[in-house]
Every structure is written in C-alpha cells, then in structure tokens.
Amino acid sequence: MAKKNNLEQKAPNSERIINIFRERETNRSKQLHKKNKSILQKLSQREIDVLKLICEEHTNQVIADKLFISKRTVDGHRQRILVKVGAKNTVGLVLYAMANEIHVFFPSLRLL
C-alpha cells in the first residue's frame, strides 16, 4: 500500500516535469524560428536565386549563365550565403534550404 501511495505522489511531479520540458522546447522552437526568419531577411533576392539553383545541383558556371552574371559573382554569392546561414559547405546550404522551405525538392510530394 505504501508503494502505491508513493507512486501516486510522484505522478503529479512527473507531469510537472514533462510540462516544464514542453514549455522549454516550445520556447526554443520559437527562438530558432525567429533566428531563421531573420537570416532569410538578410539574404538578398539574388542570393536566394543562387541558393535555389545550388539546390538544383547546377555548377557555378551554369548558375552564372542562367542569371547572366559572371562565375566569380556566383562564387561571391555562394560565400556570402555560407557565412550568413552558418553553413560549412554546399550540403549545409541544401539542408538550410530544405529546413526553411526555400526550394521545393519534390513537388509531387507536396500534393499528398
């Protein structure tokens, strides 16, 4: 009987702890959303265009040809995007684009 009462006393504490963790996770998610939104606002429209083409696996030369700019300009945009989003390489840029829905990777899946 004593064990049962002990468990009943611990149950409200467990719920309280779970609620504390939920609240912390909600706050953390809100902070990350604000941070990502501010980074998106820092990217110029041209940088977003370059990022979309990077996600489509185009080389810097192809991106330059599509946007009517030089390859060196694309290199510069790529470097600034890396710094702004805090990515280390192209994979990081693609992951960032996916997480922020900058580029629709599989349009057919959006219809499901």
Briefly summarize what is shown:
The protein contains 6 helices and no strands.
Structure description:
This protein is an all-alpha fold and 112 residues long. The chain folds into 2 domains: 1-42; 44-112, Winged helix-like DNA-binding domain superfamily/Winged helix DNA-binding domain (Arc Repressor Mutant, subunit A, Orthogonal Bundle). It is 79% helix and 0% strand. α2 crosses α4 (71-85), α2 crosses α5 (90-99) and α3 packs across α4. It is elongated and about 65 Å long. The N and C termini lie far apart (53 Å).
* Stretches with pLDDT under 50, minimum 5 residues: none
CATH homologous superfamily annotation of the largest domain = Winged helix-like DNA-binding domain superfamily/Winged helix DNA-binding domain
- Number of contiguous helices: 6
Write down the overall mean pLDDT: 80
Q: Please give the share of residues in helix.
A: over 70%
The rough form would be described as elongated
Class by SSE composition:
mainly alpha
Quaternary state reads single chain
CATH architecture of the largest domain: Orthogonal Bundle
Write down the domain tally. Answer: 2
Please tell me how large the radius of gyration is. Answer: 23 Å
Which percent range describes the beta-strand content?
A: under 5%
Secondary-structure map with pairings?
Layout: H1 2-42, H2 45-55, H3 60-67, H4 71-85, H5 90-99, H6 107-110
Helix pairs in contact: 2-4, 2-5, 3-4
